[in-house]
Amino acid sequence: MAGDRLVWERDGLDWPHREASRFVQAGGLRWHVQRFGAAHRPAVLLLHGTGSSSHSWRGLAPLLAADFSVLSCDLPGHGFTDMPPAWQLSLPGMAQAVGALLAALDSPPRLAIGHSAGAAIAARMCLDEHMAPAALVSLNGAFLPLGGLAGQLFSPAAKLMAMTPLVPQLFAWRAGDASVVQRLIDGTGSTLDAEGVALYGRLVRSPGHAAAALGMMAHWDLKPMQRDLPRLRPALTLVAAGNDRTIPPDHARRVQALLPSAQRIDLPGLGHLAHEERPAEVAERVLRVAREQRVVRQDG
Fold this sequence. Notes:
Blueprint: H1 8-11, E1 21-26, E2 29-36, E3 43-47, H2 60-64, E4 69-73, H3 91-105, E5 111-115, H4 117-127, E6 135-139, H5 148-162, H6 166-174, H7 178-186, H8 194-204, H9 207-219, H10 223-228, E7 235-241, H11 250-258, E8 263-267, H12 274-277, H13 279-292
Parallel strand pairs: 3-4, 3-5, 5-6, 6-7, 7-8
Antiparallel strand pairs: 1-2, 2-4
């Protein structure tokens, strides 16, 4: 329902980098996007993870704008972007939707950066030929299925919650308690400032946003990704944070076993939201990769 969604004219009044925001129609959805940097610079696409939004790049995007033309968006159903049909919350569906956005903007990226599930979406877009960047940077990317009992229970439980209409409302109601939001952030292994915690609180208190996150989890199937990763064409760099409690650093080693050409960068002491904790450090690593892959000039 409309009342369950975030409203730009109310909830976006103090949104980070509001001046960079615009709304775009693409693939049957109204998207919230943000753009930074000069249009003539190499294009970079930023894709956030499940349950997050464009705010996740508030520290990193302006730093990248010195060398790139930067595009970030709220994924379907997240933040201020429309909720898609349920099937489009799957990994191939998300990849197709973001591909439609890039086509509408006529903005093929030379570099793609994805965080967590956003890295899997970026990889799926490459595999399904929705984009063809020279390089892909994964920030604590979630490419492979969960192992053990968690892997057996995760999707069925998420599907049950997503199919129960009251669950997003209940989740949003519980998030009205600031300590609940803080525990969610602490569970990632990251330490965010007060603004970062407040922004996540604003998101998870929206039943519509919560429904999109649950819908993604319910429709997520990473077994095809595990099968297809060896044929990924862009140069892949895996940034793995040592204190990540959501996607353990060992996940990157498992990806490297499937794709030995992938490079790995370790960030000791940081958690799942490393790019929000230390955006300057992540920006420096990204620029180094971009120069190595000739996305930008060595002296650029």
